[in-house]
Specification:
The protein is α/β, with parallel strands linked by helices. The chain is built from 17 helices and 18 strands. The strands form six sheets. The chain has a five-stranded parallel beta sheet with strand order 3-2-1-13-14, with helices on both faces. Strand 6 and strand 7 (149-152) form a beta hairpin.
């Protein structure tokens, strides 16, 4: 068994997250992590809210609050929403903790000491009306390379190339539409050219990645330039060097400190367990595996910038160097990037009201209905579209009429005709075939989840459900009660085992309902453990508290297999597993969107 790091993208704390966000980073990482625990691995799933940078500063100014007050508000909203969705983090924290500041500054100093943070004079943008600096991401214009209208001042999302704001054609401020004025400013740059060979070697050794992710990542190394890792901004982590640390307008770039969050969250988790070095088992051991989950717009930072920082901290670039205090930090095993989820054929847009937030979705619909839609129809390897009509169809035709119906029929027949799990009599060929096919699905579904093919995995699971429904129809136990009650009991016992098998296969995808089915069949203990939200004291900043997501998931380790049911276990009358959606919900939701 292996140690598995599930490093999940950090949602930005400038507002509530919408379902497109959790389709890209949330549900896929949770399905993978839950399966890996059940398969016997030691999983560490970490993330948190990303709370520095310009968008929070700008929004806080608009609302008349401090950046920390704004981040505090949305950190709690996001923690509540992700907990309710059932995302099983070992630790979901934030980037404004004392622990994170220390880790980010320590890593910066190590990279600088090894010679990979180089000081350069560049041209920074200034707002002519306010005199404040304009960060690159808040400047838009036409890409000088591909001609895309809407490129940002740090990167073009269309061609993926790194940019400087001054190179954009027709640059304008996203804040007020002004044409920025450019002045000279000093910054530290990550010397990517000195890291390009080990980055090339690392990407060349990667196998099994989604082809679009690997190809995009390799193309990033064709024309590599140093990349700025500090910013002219007064909200963020101070630059930990003499002459810079005291400067109130110079801070570490938000993307530099955000990716370090994977490491700092692991360290915070270890400190909270009482074993401060426990994180090293996932970060310093070459046998440990690490998987980074995000949307496609973040590939650059996870397949180039973060690995480059790790290589620099390890002293393994062209300039050499020494290991940082964090030891030999291992590079990502795989960058697992999803494509984009649109909504009713258009991009999500909070400003235009074309959005549904996770909180609103979960207030009206079951969390497993949303999780199922994302698993079976989400943006795994291509952009996908969420529509209310398709959400209703998937819920009613597949969850309610397929899986929910199988559970309800089987439990009802058992309750009415036996009252408990029956002993199996002599098995017929049809019984043996059904049981064999069901048990074989554990290997098939497990392999698919492990290789990040979750659409195929949930589809295979639903095939098992379909075969179980067919088994019930073919054997018709309701006809056997009088003519062959012993045979009826065997058929119902087989059917109950098929339901149990399918439920275990469902557990990573649909944890809320899987726990209910487990209990309905007399199962004891936990099949699908839930995360918990709790308020904790900052480990380093006295008097400060914040909410985290954590949980105890150890009970499910090594449970990815058939669970033989125990004869004689009482089976109570079932209640509906899923809520059937009325036809009216489509028109109602579309009208709600139009009104917002």
């Amino acid at each position: 068994m292996s140690r598995i790091l599930s490093a999940v993208a950090w949602p930005y704390a400038n507002g509530p997250r919408h379902i497109g966000h959790v389709a890209g980073f949330g549900v896929p990482s949770d399905v993978f992590s839950r399966y890996m625990r059940m398969a016997g691995h030691d999983v560490l799933m970490v993330s948190g809210t990303d709370e520095h940078g310009t968008p929070i500063l700008v929004q806080a100014d608009q609302e008349g609050v401090t950046p920390q007050e704004l981040a505090d508000r949305y950190n709690r909203v996001i923690v509540e929403d992700l907990t309710q969705l059932g995302l099983s983090y070992d630790l979901f924290t934030r980037t404004t903790t004392g622990n994170h500041y220390q880790v980010a500054q320590t890593l910066f100093k190590a990279v600088h000491r090894n010679g990979y943070m180089i000081e350069q004079t560049t041209r920074g943008a200034i707002s002519p009306s306010t005199g404040r600096t304009l960060p690159d991401r808040y400047i838009e214009g036409t890409c000088p390379i591909c001609g895309y209208d809407g490129a940002r001042g740090d990167q073009c999302d269309n061609c993926g190339n790194q940019l400087d704001a001054i190179d954009l054609k027709n640059p304008v401020s996203r804040i007020n539409g002004e044409t920025p004025r450019f002045v000279e400013t000093e910054h530290f740059f990550l010397d990517l050219p000195a890291l390009v060979q080990p980055l090339t070697d690392w990407l060349g050794s990667r196998h099994g990645w989604r082809p679009n992710v690997l190809n995009f990542s390799k193309n990033l190394l064709v024309d590599v330039r140093p990349r700025a890792m500090t910013r002219d901004i007064d909200w963020g982590i101070p630059v930990p060097l003499a002459g810079w640390e005291e400067n109130p307008s110079k801070r570490l770039y938000v993307w530099f400190d955000a990716v370090i969050g994977y490491l700092s969250a692991s360290i915070e988790w270890a400190r909270r367990t009482g074993d401060a070095d426990a994180w090293r088992q996932w970060w310093n051991d070459p046998a440990a595996l690490s998987y980074y989950f995000m949307g496609k717009d973040n590939i650059t930072f996870h397949s180039q910038i973060w690995p480059g920082e790790l290589i620099a901290a390890n002293g393994r670039g062209a300039r050499g160097g020494e290991l940082s205090p964090f030891g030999d930090l291992q590079l990502p095993t795989e960058v697992v990037s999803s494509e984009f989820l649109t909504m009713e054929s258009a991009k999500f847009s909070s400003s235009r009201g074309h959005v549904i937030y996770v909180r609103d979705m979960l207030s009206r619909y079951q969390p497993d209905a949303l999780r199922y839609f994302i698993a079976v129809a989400g943006p795994e390897t291509s952009d996908a579209d969420f529509t209310w009509s398709e959400f209703k169809r998937r819920t009613n035709d597949e969850l309610v009429a397929g899986w929910g119906n199988l559970v309800n029929r089987t439990a009802s027949l058992l309750h009415k005709n036996v009252g408990s799990i029956p002993e199996l009599g002599e098995l017929a060929d049809v019984d043996r075939a059904a049981l064999a096919s069901s048990e074989a699905a554990f290997a098939t579904v497990g392999d698919l989840v492990r290789s990040h093919r979750q659409r195929a995995a949930i589809t295979e699971t639903m095939r098992v459900v379909g075969e179980a429904n067919k088994y019930l129809a073919d054997t018709a136990p309701w006809k056997l009660k009088n003519e062959d009650p012993e045979r009826m009991r065997t058929v119902l016992g087989v059917a109950a085992q098929l339901v149990s098998d399918a439920n275990t296969l469902m557990a990573p995808f649909l944890p809320h309902s899987s726990q209910r089915v487990h209990e309905a069949l007399g199962g004891e203990g936990v099949l699908a453990p839930m995360p918990e939200m709790t308020d904790v004291a900052d480990l380093d900043l006295e008097g400060r508290k914040y909410p985290i997501i954590t949980g105890d998931y150890t009970a499910v380790k090594g449970t990815w297999a058939r669970r033989p049911l125990v004869a004689g276990t009482p089976v109570p009358a079932p209640s509906p597993l899923f809520t059937k959606l009325d036809d009216e919900i489509v028109a109602a939701e579309l009208e709600r969107m139009a009104d917002e």
